[in-house]
From TrEMBL:
Domain ABC transporter: 2-232
Designated name of the protein: Putative ABC transporter ATP-binding protein YxlF
InterPro entries (UniProt xref): AAA+_ATPase (IPR003593), ABC_transporter-like_ATP-bd (IPR003439), DrrA1/2-like_C (IPR025302), P-loop_NTPase (IPR027417)
Homology family: Belongs to the ABC transporter superfamily.
Tagged with keyword DNA-binding: no
Pfam family, one: DrrA1-3_C
EC number, as in UniProt: 3.6.3.-
Gene name per UniProt: yxlF_3
Entry GO MF terms: ATP binding; ATP hydrolysis activity
Protein keywords: ATP-binding, Hydrolase, Nucleotide-binding, Transport
Amino acid sequence: MIQLEGFGKDYGDFTAVENMDLKIEAGETFGFIGPNGAGKSTTIRFLATLLKASRGRGEVAGCDVMGDPMGVRRSIGYMPDNFGVYDGMRVWEFLDFFAVAYGINRTARASIIDNVLELLDLGHKRDDFVNGLSRGMKQRLCLAKTLVHDPPVLILDEPASGLDPRARVEVKALLKELRKMGKTILISSHILTELADCCTSIGIIERGQLLMHGPIDQVYRQIRRNRFVEIAFTENGDAGISILRSSPALRDLEIRPDRVIAELETDDAGLAQLLGYLIAQGVKMRSFNDRDPTLEDVFMTVTQGLVS
Ligand SMILES: Nc1ncnc2c1ncn2[C@@H]1O[C@H](COP(=O)(O)OP(=O)(O)OP(=O)(O)O)[C@@H](O)[C@H]1O
């Protein structure tokens, strides 16, 4: 549904995105993850037909991004990172304005606006002025705007940025709902955990390079050679930490007040051996938990500390 082939973008001498290949299948919710300045918005703005590529090409819903921009625009709902709402308009008028722009006739518009308002839980704000809405409500209204022409593809640039935790949870729930409706979604974020439970696939971008992408479980598996073990010591914790530090398999060690998290390049046998050794050395533990990597772990492993 979304495809990039050798996409690159330069701003003068500066290369913002290098030679990016990407394929997102229909029905996927793709999390585009990277720190500030990584090149997410540049890629997204190209896909939304707002920016020309310096090299390469892209396709959205079968339409060539540069050859058929109108086809692409009809197929996408785009939410920019810096969105604005027009002052002096009521909520329903704002949506009606975009529905008119998409050429939807008057009769259809009324029911579409009602449906979209209901989906976004904005029905009670129908007649409010948009400039009086809270940030969270404005963000939701912007999301509503992307849906009025019922596009198969949604391209959302940091839709949850600046929202409080409750509003973030609501955005995530909404994304799941939209996925169930069959939408293909590309969503960007620099907050890793934000996307962990609502994406089917992810791509990790840093300094203009897509370092890794694929189905979320595949990406996890690729880095699975590194194991993340959470250990809570009850006695001789200092000795435990020294043992971990002297292990040749240790890649990273995070020490927290109640536990440590060791990243180890080893297998099941190696972990069993380490556990046995800790016990033999008189280190007491209430847990030694080989946990699944989190999105944060994946990101740190993949970017290998290039993040400044
Ligand atoms: N119009 C422009 N002219 C010059 N440089 C630009 C322009 N737009 C973006 N850049 C640079 O290109 C790089 C990528 O920017 P981009 O906005 O795509 O990153 P991003 O991953 O979306 O970051 P953020 O999370 O901060 O939005 C940055 O170094 C940015 O400063």
